[in-house]
Design goal:
The chain folds into 2 domains: 214 residues, 3-Layer(aba) Sandwich (Rossmann fold); 58 residues, no CATH class. The protein has a 7-stranded mixed sheet, with helices on both faces. The chain is built from 13 helices and 7 strands. The radius of gyration is 20 Å and the shape is globular. It is of the alpha/beta class and 294 residues long.
Length: 294
């Protein structure tokens, strides 16, 4: 898996464009209308995010955000008093976040197109690193966590949202419902009996034809194509044990699941997110000495 594949995908599919639509043009008023529409839709769908951000102690602290999307959380962190810097792998996210902050007159210390594998900051630069829905798309996560640890001050904090393994979305929707739908539809499409499948289903069928149906249906392969669309090149799902294994320079202080989400199942807004939610929020403390060997 090449970093350029991940960069190309997210450059072509900016986070949220498929749900809330892209800006209508390149004028400032087009972007202002887009950001207003995007934020309203995003926080209606993911209403837990402002609450989770309220619990972070960011006022007056130097905060680095890794992975910017449309800059929604960037704005929220700055409005909560963070001395904010941000990095993203794509020009699109950097440009849109910069546009958002300029339009709304929000101060920031740095905005860079850069990889989490090579952060453009000196050692001990930040009090807190925040990353929402990004690090589960990084294959070399051990290098990523090492870079994050390097730029954090001793005893600094990492707050991440990662896709949850023990979730309704992964265990039922992805592992059972979506694979069963593809397995049922595949021969019908191949034989021409299903002439106009849904675009997502058609893309999965095309992937299965290229890779072989049974190989594509293995969860080790199918998960990549089922979290953020059939073109997404890489995703992982996490539980606390895997977090500890993939972030050895950090110690898990707190973890909780939020966001009941498992399309196509109509479960949004239902109870049970703390048990089976799709978003695993993890607070980790940077270790000041290497972990003991197990």
């Amino acid at each position: 898996m090449r970093q350029s594949d991940i960069q190309d995908f997210w450059s072509a599919h900016p986070c949220g464009d498929n749900v809330f639509g892209a800006p209508g043009g390149e004028e400032h008023e087009d972007y202002e209308a887009f950001f207003t529409r995007y934020d309203a839709g995003k926080y209606r769908l993911e209403s837990h995010i402002p609450e989770c951000l309220d619990r972070l102690d960011v006022a007056g602290r130097r905060v680095l955000e890794i992975g910017l999307g449309q800059g929604a959380e960037s704005e929220q962190l700055i409005r909560r008093g963070a001395r904010w810097s941000g990095v993203d792998l794509t020009d699109t996210a950097v440009r849109r976040t910069g546009m958002r902050l300029a339009l709304r007159g929000l101060p920031h210390e740095g905005l860079h197109r850069a990889s989490v594998l090579d952060l453009p900051f000196p050692d001990d630069s930040f009090d807190l690193v925040f990353s929402h829905g990004v690090l589960h798309h990084v294959p070399d996560v051990l290098t990523a966590q090492r870079e994050i640890h390097r730029v954090l001050k001793p005893g600094g904090e990492l707050v991440v949202m990662l896709y949850a393994r023990w979730s309704l979305n992964y265990l039922l929707s992805i592992a059972v419902v979506r694979r069963a739908a593809l397995l049922s539809a595949y021969p019908l499409v191949r034989c021409g009996l299903l002439r106009r499948p849904h675009s997502l289903l058609a893309a999965h069928v095309a992937n299965a034809r290229r890779r072989g149906l049974l190989r594509y249906l293995r969860m080790s392969d199918f998960v990549h194509r089922s979290t953020d669309g059939p073109g997404n090149p890489f995703s992982r799902v996490y539980d606390v044990r895997r977090v500890s294994r993939h972030f050895p320079l950090f110690e898990v202080r707190h973890a909780e699941k939020r966001f009941m989400h498992a399309p196509p199942l109509p479960v949004h807004g239902m109870t049970g997110e703390r048990l089976l939610g799709w978003h695993l929020w993890v607070h980790l403390d940077a270790r000041t000495s290497p972990p003991a060997s197990s």
